[in-house]
Design a protein that fits this description.
This protein is of the alpha+beta class. Helix content is about 20%, strand content about 25%. Helix 1 packs antiparallel against helix 3 and helix 3 packs antiparallel against helix 4.
Amino acid sequence: MKNQIISGILAVSVIAGITSCSGTVKDNGKDEAPTAAVTTTAAEDRSEDMEETAGQDDISVTDDAASAGGSSSDAGTGFTVPPELTEDDDILFTYSYSNMAWGFTHVVTLVTRSGDLYTSEDWIGLDPEIALLYLKTYAKPNGHLDPEKIADLYEACLEISPDAKTSEVQTAYDMGNYVLNFRNQETGEEITVFKRGDFKLETEDEALSNAMDKAERLMGFIPAPTPSYSLHIYPNMLNVPYGGEDLIGTHKIFDSYEKLESFCLENGIDIEPYMSSNVKSNLQEASAIVLQVFDTNCPVDGTLRTGKDTFIFLPTLAAYEYNPEFEGKVTVAICRNDLFTKISFDDENGDLWQ
């Protein structure tokens, strides 16, 4: 199994160099969109204390990683649709930054076996595999590591015993912590390879020390803690059926619940039966509520915000049960986002939200 995983990583590297992939994302099993190419440029050093140990050839960062969803040339949707997940897209490492000194900050970079990097914030508690699924479908990688070096680090991490003794030493205050976790594809276990910042992970274990050294050199140029994306998957996203046609494609912002309620009443959108008391209370407290009318009845799971101030709703990628109330109708997605009072966002087609 170990050799298969390492060989799989290297095979992805070779295949990526000789061919471009295409894939689809399906909405109700009908709509398809093509794959968009990802361009890369040289990396910037985002970790001064690693400047001398990390090689610039180890990583490339996308020139316009935050543009996912912002171009109207991708089949008219603006979505970047990479190949569907395969076994070669396993998450081998998660590299996180968290800080509670001045409000809560949590940023995670997912490192896949193909070398692609996806950095997002605000999905603490969300399963990394689910986060990767949505980021791969609706975004672009924001960087790429050399798969051969990932294979080398992964192999070193396989030698670490889960029982390796470690200690933590406080080295700073209010810096937050950078943590690299290794995800063993054979056992499902996670092992912390290094931690630095307010606390430093120390060990005398030879295998862990070896992996720690390799990780420090390789991870020095990963673009964290600057996130390219802000991903939210809401268990209580408000999905409401709409039986008309005039509003399809509409993107709206309301600065009060009363205005949302009035708009829905005027246009035959009955929101009350689909709203829990908690969701209603939350919307009533909002300074900005966003609404989008889709052209299918596919449910919406959450939202994605990119570094270029593009805000999009995310149609579900999970299997969903037939709902007769949506038969012959389309989905209206509604959620709270108070950032709209401060920032002017574009939608997935590059148009300003109304």
